[in-house]
Write a structure and sequence with these properties.
The complex is a heterodimer of chains A (158) and B (103). With 158 residues, chain A is mostly helical. Chain A folds into two domains: 84 residues; 41 residues. In chain A, helix 1 runs antiparallel to helix 2 and helix 2 runs antiparallel to helix 3. With 103 residues, chain B is mainly α. Chain B has a single domain, classed as Helix Hairpins (Orthogonal Bundle). Helix content of chain B is 77%, strand content 0%. In chain B, helix 1 packs antiparallel against helix 2 and helix 2 packs antiparallel against helix 3. The model of chain B has no long low-confidence stretch (mean pLDDT 74). Classes of the chains: A mainly alpha (158), B mainly alpha (103).
Chain lengths: 158, 103
């Protein structure tokens, strides 16, 4: 029961934040709304029992990506035009939402997905390279941070 | 008691639909990019649901997911850096007006 309540709460918060992201004329507030969406996603992942993945979601996407996005767009003023055409958004959301929700959620799934051979094959092939991949991921983050800082400095000089 | 898998795939598909709608209906460059992040978020919810229900889970696969997330998020930050640079060139990021610019 508690899981269901938490799931419904996270779904409402996530969708409300996604709508705020689209409706806001201020990019700073839109970036904060995206960060709240990522927190809700982390909650969904935690509800599936994968606490470590949820922690990574919080650390990388909320603590890393959202922070840099907010820093990058913090100096922007409020836009003079509406960011989205809500008629198009509503029409596309209803169309795609109905199609995907019916095809994905309406079908019954087995109680257990069993041993996934694809996962085992991929992990067997990547064995021994995980530390290397993690190092590359962190280096790319450093690249991203540096590029934002350098661009901001170049803009100030110009 | 674990929630049914349909719940997670349903929420993931709705986030996906909202992200697609935002990407199609948005007029601002950065909002289009943020809508792509919504699409990404929906796929993560569905993926987490599927892996949560698989009986054989491998902790090392989480590192692969982390690396994929890092690559995708770096692309987003790179695009935002491009936006910050382009702000010195154009005064507004209305895509309708940008499409009419010549030369």
């Amino acid at each position: 029961m508690l899981e269901l309540v938490a799931f419904i709460f996270l779904a409402l918060v996530g969708f409300a934040s996604a709508l705020v992201l689209l409706l806001q004329r201020n990019l700073f507030k839109a970036a904060i709304a995206l960060a709240i969406v990522f927190v809700a996603i982390a909650g969904f992942i935690a509800l599936t029992g994968q606490a470590i993945v949820a922690l990574f979601q919080l650390l990388i996407l909320v603590g890393g990506l959202s922070t840099y996005l907010i820093v990058a767009v913090a100096s922007e003023k409020e836009s003079s035009f509406r960011h989205v055409d809500m008629r198009i958004v509503a029409a596309v959301f209803v169309l795609f939402g109905a199609l995907m929700f019916y095809s994905v959620a309406a079908n019954s799934h087995p109680a257990s997905l069993g041993n996934s051979g694809i996962i085992a094959d991929i992990t067997a092939a990547m064995k021994g390279y995980f530390a290397f991949m993690a190092a590359i991921a962190f280096l790319m983050f450093a690249l991203a941070i540096g590029s934002v800082l350098l661009i901001k400095r170049a803009v100030r000089v110009v | 008691m674990m929630l049914p898998l349909n719940y997670f795939t349903g929420v993931g598909s709705l986030f996906l639909a909202l992200g697609i709608a935002g990407a199609i209906g948005s007029r601002h460059f950065i909002v289009t990019i943020l809508s792509l992040e919504l699409i990404f978020a929906g796929s993560i919810v569905a993926l987490a649901g599927f892996f949560g229900y698989a009986t054989a889970t491998n902790g090392e696969f989480f590192l692969i997911m982390l690396s994929l997330w890092a690559v995708a998020s770096v692309e987003i930050v790179g695009l935002v850096a491009f936006y910050v640079y382009m702000r010195t060139k154009v005064s507004d990021f209305d895509l309708k007006r940008l499409m009419q610019l010549k030369g």
